[in-house]
C-alpha cells in the first residue's frame, strides 16, 4: 500500500491491540485444548492412533487455512475474513464441547484448524496499516502474543477441566475458549476498520 493510501485510510489506534488479542486468543484456545486432548479422547475410549489423529487434525486444517484465507483476504478484505475465521473458531470450540464421538471430534478439530489459519490475514492487515518504521515492532508483539497464549492456555485448561467426569468434564474449558473467541469477534467488529 502506498504512503498516500495509508494516509487516506488510517487504522484505528486500537487496531494493533485488537489484532494482538486475536493472535493471543487463537493460541490461548489452542493451548487450553492441547494438554486435555489425550484425556478428552480417552473419555471416548479412543485408541492411541485416534488420539494422534485428534492432535494432528488442527495442524492439518491450519496448513490449508493459511494460504486460503490469505488469498481470500486479498480479494474480499481483511476484516470480513478475520470475522469469518474467528467466528468459525468460536463455533468449533462450542461444537467440540458437545461432540458425540471421536469421529465428530476429529472433524471439528480439522475445521477449527482451518478457521484458525488466519495469521497471514493478520500480518497482511498490519502491513497495510502500519508505517514501515513501526512494522517490525508490531510483528514482534504478534510473536509475543503467540508465546504468551501458549503459556497461559495449558494452565487455564488444566485448571478448568475435570477429566473424571468424562466428555462433559471438558466442556468448561471449551466454553471459555469459545467465549474468548466470541469476544474477539466483537472487538474486531467495533475496533477494526478495513485496511
Give an account of the 3D structure.
The chain is mostly helical. The chain has a single domain (12-191), classed as MFS general substrate transporter like domains (Growth Hormone, Chain: A). It has helices at 3-8, 15-33, 37-42, 48-76, 78-97, 102-116, 119-129, 132-160, 171-191. The longest helix has 29 residues, at 48-76. The chain starts with a helix and ends with a helix. The relative contact order is 0.23.
Question: What's the layout of helices and strands?
Answer:
Layout: H1 3-8, H2 15-33, H3 37-42, H4 48-76, H5 78-97, H6 102-116, H7 119-129, H8 132-160, H9 171-191
Quick rundown:
The chain has 195 residues and is mainly alpha-helical. Helix content is 80%, strand content 0%.
* CATH homology-level superfamily: MFS general substrate transporter like domains
Poorly predicted runs of 5 or more residues: 1-8
Computed Rg: 17 Å
Give the helices and strands as they follow along the chain.
HHHHHHHHH
General form:
elongated
- Global mean pLDDT: 85
Per CATH, the architecture is Up-down Bundle
**Overall number of domains:** 1
Q: Largest sheet at a glance?
A: none
Number of strands: 0
Number of helices: 9
**CATH topology title:** Growth Hormone, Chain: A
Q: According to CATH, what is the class?
A: Mainly Alpha
Helix-strand category: mainly alpha
